[in-house]
Amino acid sequence: MRANIRRGERTRVVIVGCGLGGLKLAVSLRHSGFQVVVVDKNNYNQFPPLIYQVASAGLEPSNIAFPIRRLFQGYPHYYFRMAEVKSIDENEKAIQTSVGTIHYDYLVLGMGATTNFFGNEQIAHNAIPMKTVSDAMALRNHILHNLELAETETDADKRQKFMNVVIVGGGPSGVEIAGALAEMKKYVVPRDYPDLADRMHIYLVNSGDRLLKAMDKKSSATAEKELVRKGVHVRKGWRVTDYDGRVVRMKNGETIESANVIWVSGVKANTIAGLPDEAVGHAGRLLCDRMNRVKGMTDVFAIGDQSLIEGDAAWPQGHPQLAQVALQQAENVARNIVRKEHGQDMRPFVYKNLGTMATIGRKAAVAEIGRWKFGGLTAWLLWLVVHLRSILGVKNKFFVLLNWLWNYVNYKQSLRLILRSNREK
Ligand SMILES: Cc1cc2nc3c(=O)[nH]c(=O)nc-3n(C[C@H](O)[C@H](O)[C@H](O)COP(=O)(O)OP(=O)(O)OC[C@H]3O[C@@H](n4cnc5c(N)ncnc54)[C@H](O)[C@@H]3O)c2cc1C
C-alpha cells in the first residue's frame, strides 16, 4: 500500500477533501482519539468566497489558500496524503487513490462541487470557470493578456473582442466578479492602458429574470441597480447556448463577440466510482439521511456541496451549497461519529441560517440576516468583517486587510502580473 499509513489500534476516520467542510470535520475530531486520515488532491485549503478577488487581481492566491500540512502540525494521529481519490470499495471498506489504497472505519466525503457546463463541450473548452484558485489565476492571466493584445490590435472589431468580458451566470459569483471587473475598468484600465479607456465592456448574462435568485427580490434589485451604475451591461432572460472562443450565442438569437467568457452558471458535485446509483441525486449530489449518512451505504457520510440531505421539512430541495452548511454539517458528523463509537444515538442535522451576502465592488453589498435585508456601505463593511474572520492564518488576515485598505484608498495595487509557466504558454 503506497499510501503508507500504519493502521494501529485506533478507529480510523478517513476524510476525502480538505475544503471548508473537510477541514472543519478534521479539526472537530482533534480530541476524539481517532486516527484521522485527510486526503486531498491539492496540498492547500482554499477560501472560495474570495476567489473572485484573485481573479480580478485584488488579492494574491497565497492570501486565500493555506498549506494543509501546516494546519495539522501538533495534531497527534493525524495523517495527510495529497492524492486524488478515484473509487470506493464498500465491501473492503477502502478507497482507491492515486497513491494507493486506504482502508477506513468511517469515511466522510467532502469533495465539494465543480463547474457544470451542462454537457456543452465547446463552452467547456473555450470559457473560463471560476471555482478554484487555479481557475482564478488562469482568469486573471487571460484577461490581462487580452488587454495587452487589445493595445496592439489595429482592427477595431478585433480589438473590441479582446475588451469585451462576458460573465455567464447572475448568482453571487457572477455579481461579485462583475462588480470587481467594473472597478478594474474604472480605475485600472484608464491608468495602465490610456488608449483603451472606455473601450472595456462587461456583460453579465443571466438566464433567469433576476440576479441573485436565492436572495430576496429587493436584494436582487439593489445588486442590479448598483452594477448598472458601475457600468455593467446586465442582460436578464438571456440563455447562452454556445461559445466558440469568438462569439457568445444566446437562445434568443442575440450574440456578443468576446475573447473573455467567464462561466459561473452552474455546479455539479464531484464524484468517485463505486457509489450506489440510488445515492446519486440532483446534479450528482449524494443523497443522505438527516445524519449525513449516504443512502444505501454503511459508515459512509457526505457533507457540504457534495451532499443533499433528504427529509428536512424546512429544506425540501436540500440545503444550499454554502460555506455555513458545509461547516455546520462537518461539526454534526464529527459529533455523531464520536457518539456512535460510544454506543449513543446519532443526532439529525439542523441548519442554522446565519445569513447570506454578496459584494458589488467597493463600498456596496447586499446582506440578508434573518428578517433584516440591507445594502450599501453597512452591508459591505459587514461583509469585510465576516470574510476577514474566516480567512485562515494571522499572516493571511493581515495581508488581506492591508490589501483591502490600500485598494480602498487608491486602487493602485501591483498584482497585475501575467505569470504563467512555459508549458502553459
Ligand atoms: C467562487 C466561489 C465563491 C463562493 N462564495 C461563497 C460565499 O460568498 N458564501 C458562501 O457561503 N459560500 C460561497 N461559496 C460556496 C462555498 O465555498 C462552498 O459551499 C463550500 O466550499 C463547500 O465546502 P465543501 O467542503 O463541501 O467543498 P470544498 O470547500 O469545495 O472542498 C472540496 C475539497 O475536495 C477536494 N477534492 C475534490 N475532488 C477530490 C478528489 N477526487 N480527491 C481528493 N480530493 C478532492 C478539493 O481539492 C477541495 O479541497 C463559493 C464558492 C465558490 C466556488
Automatic annotation (TrEMBL):
UniProt domain FAD/NAD(P)-binding: residue ranges: 12-330
EC number: 1.6.5.9
EC main group: oxidoreductase
Source domain of life: Bacteria
Reactions the enzyme catalyzes: a quinone + NADH + H(+) = a quinol + NAD(+)
Record protein name field: NADH:ubiquinone reductase (non-electrogenic)
Signal peptide residues on this chain, from the entry's feature table: none
Keyword Flavoprotein applies: yes
Pfam families: NDH2_C, Pyr_redox_2
Gene Ontology molecular function terms on file: NADH dehydrogenase (quinone) (non-electrogenic) activity
Family: Belongs to the NADH dehydrogenase family.
UniProt keywords, alphabetically: FAD, Flavoprotein, NAD, Oxidoreductase, Transit peptide
External alternative NADH-ubiquinone oxidoreductase-like C-terminal domain boundaries: 354-407
